Amino acid sequence: MAESLYDRTLALAGLFQAARLVQTLAREGRADERAFAASVNSLFTFEAGSVADVYGGIDGVAMGLKLIEEKLNSRGESLDFELARYAVSLIQIETQLRRLPSMQEAVRDGLKTIQDQMKFFAEAESGNAVHPKLSEKIGELYQQTLSTLTPRIMVNGENDQLSNPLVAARVRTALFAGIRSAFLWQQKGGRRWHLLIFRRRIAQAAAELIHQTAAP
């Protein structure tokens, strides 16, 4: 597999994974904690030796890889238009962000500040759980920066879930992680038209990467 395709597929998996996390959180108030933790941690990986390292290894985007294999290899029967809408919206917001160096700097500085603040809570972390305070702080940074870009991402879900402050913060955190993955995807040469022209090739790359994961 060409390294460029490998890198783009992993970053795209991060984007699709974040979109799925937004879906399940907004609808059910829950998310796969292992996938959520990997997506959150990608926000704080400022220097990485490889795209896989951004997610703590290929296993970190196992959910996203499976989504790519299923959705991009589909003839229509298993398409998820809401998931696709989230993915496209995340790419659109990232495109706006790339044109605003000052906001990029604000986002990076904000994440570094959060990283320093959360060191106090590090010992309270257990397993793959993400500390609620971390989601809260990331959600606040999202509201102050990325949520001001247009077109705004409209999240569909249950009112009971979206009105819950913790769930809302986790939704914003997942959106933040999706934009980070979109940024990485574009950085590695990903383009929106690739999703149409090269969809089968990307799905095959995802299938090959899945075989390298330890996730069931």
UniProtKB/TrEMBL annotation:
Record's GO cellular component terms: cytoplasm
Keyword Membrane: yes
Source superkingdom: Bacteria
Localisation per UniProt entry: Cytoplasm
Pfam families attached to this UniProt entry: DUF489 (PF04356)
Keyword annotations: Cell membrane, Cytoplasm, Membrane
InterPro entries the UniProt entry points to: HflD, HflD-like_sf
Key word Membrane present: yes
Predominant cellular place of this UniProt entry's protein: cytoplasm
Protein name: High frequency lysogenization protein HflD homolog
